[in-house]
Amino acid sequence: KAGVTQTPRYLIKTRGQQVTLSCSPISGHRSVSWYQQTPGQGLQFLFEYFSETQRNKGNFPGRFSGRQFSNSRSEMNVSTLELGDSALYLCASSWIPGTSGGAKNIQYFGAGTRLSVL
Amino acid sequence: GESVGLHLPTLSVQEGDNSIINCAYSNSASDYFIWYKQESGKGPQFIIDIRSNMDKRQGQRVTVLLNKTVKHLSLQIAATQPGDSAVYFCAEKIGNNRLAFGKGNQVVVIP
How far apart (Å, rounded) are the C-alpha atoms in residues A34 and A110? Predict the structure, then answer.
């Protein structure tokens, strides 16, 4: 079974631009979560989508948004990029239906998209 | 991992020795915890998890201990190998399928 796939792996943008990152979850997984990883702040939760609905949202400004499609693939968008948005953006998928603990809760991560804002 | 520029606590361990990585969590109501390993250029990789109704869980060469009284988790790696060199993160589940991660610990295995 293929793992979580994130595209592109690397992106270079300039301040003020916008960017869209893509995530394909593990087949059958219905929940997709996004995290931002920086040296200073570590791994921080952005948002989570399940069945095309945002269920959780972290403490990030409205410039960060996302969506999920009917096939569970997800995209996140960052508008009006700032230098501080430079980070590794990680996507994780998990299997939620009938959640009662165990392996169904585990979030599996992709390799991430490295975004550099110049 | 993504530790460039960040001074992470570092554990240097001789190959073949046991490693212990510690983590404090913040939310006494958290009922699920996970340890992840992140190698350079890769995303976090699941190692082992534990629910709050347990205080110990063992996997292959790894053991997680949970002390709810002091809100402390530890990860023990037996017979540490060069491939175990990585940054290790503990995470607690807060709310619905949302993880809060610790800052990470760098493990360096000395051959």
Answer: 10
Cα–Cα distance measured from residue B30 to residue A13, given in angstroms and rounded to the nearest whole number: 38
Cβ atoms A29, A99 nearer than 8 A: no
Q: Are B88 and B37 in contact (CB under 8 A)?
A: yes
Cβ count within 10 A of residue A77: 13
Backbone angles phi, psi at A28, to 5 degrees: 95, -20
Write out residues 7-66 of B within 8 Å (CB-CB) of A. 32, 34, 36, 41-46, 49, 51
Q: What is the DSSP string of B21-76?
A: EEEE-S-TT--EEEEEEE-TTS--EEEEEEETT-SEEE-SSEEEEEETTTTEEEEE
Tell me the β-bridge partners of A19. Answer: A78
Mean pLDDT throughout B16-43?
Answer: 93
Query: Which residues of chain A fall short of a pLDDT of 70?
Result: 1, 96, 98-104
Least CA distance to A6: which residue of chain B? B43
Q: Confidence class of residue B109 from pLDDT cuts 50, 70 and 90?
A: very high
pLDDT attached to residue A96: 67
* Assigned token pair, A64: 């960060």
pLDDT category at B4 given cuts 50, 70, 90 is: very low
Q: For residue A108, which residues of chain B lie inside 8 Å, CB to CB?
A: 46
